[in-house]
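We now fix the convention by which a protein and its fold are recorded. The integers have meaning only within a learned vocabulary of local backbone shapes. The record below shows the convention in full.
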Amino acid sequence: MRLTWLTDTHLEFPGNSGRLRLAEEIRLQKPNNVLITGDISNAKQIKKLLPELQERIGVPIFYVLGNHDFYGGSIKEIREWAAKETIASGGKLFWMHGNFIQMNPYASLIAVDGWADGLLGDPAGSRIILNDWTMIDEMRNAGIQKDLDKRLAMLKKLGHEEASTLGPILAQALAQSEHVYVMTHIPPWRAATWHEGEHSDNDWLPWFSCKAVGDLIEKRSAQHPGKKITVLCGHTHGRGWSQITDDIEVYTGGADYYLPEVQGTFAIADDGTYVKEPPIRLESDD
């Protein structure tokens, strides 16, 4: 099985020519399925641009939603659309949040959208202001931009809900599989918050990581020693790889708003192991 991975495509930025180029690069990888770990577009355009991409590449897309996918709309609205579209598309556009797929007898794929939960770094001392807090209906209506206590309470709640959603399916996957692949948008550990070759500092870290999900993955992993977990995430626009424990590794995808690209292809063997292949680029890139 060949799984081609993308993240943070922000499809509203590159224009139609850029989206056509991305589709052609995906086809060059010859995947069975495509994985996208969030920030596909925004609330007003994801409903058009994600189905358009799937039609152009001709294989199913398994995806999670990122914070930008709710910009200009609400979390509730876009998640309801994603759930309905999964059914309407016959699984060709499969919103993976809270779902479990047994890829073969030894490997499974699970996912959760993820939210930065403000539990790492120094949220009280952070000088960072995110567009999320005014561009997403639920956050704007709660007034979290100007009220730190409200912000941290909401983000902690959202992160806890993500971990609670992931918990049962991760336990099921580890019981049934030797290797579990986890898709999420937000890096679950500081070691996964790559940007320009470095990890996020205490200013950015509260808004760029989900400690609740990272803690949950480590807890479940410790209950199943020897089972391998590979996490795919995005959000920080920096590419990197980290070994969290002997059994847990995490890849973070890089991104450019105007040049969406393939991160790589995971060729999953019958025993659940994989080879990560470098992406095949169009000749004009050389």
Notes: The longest helix spans residues 148-176.
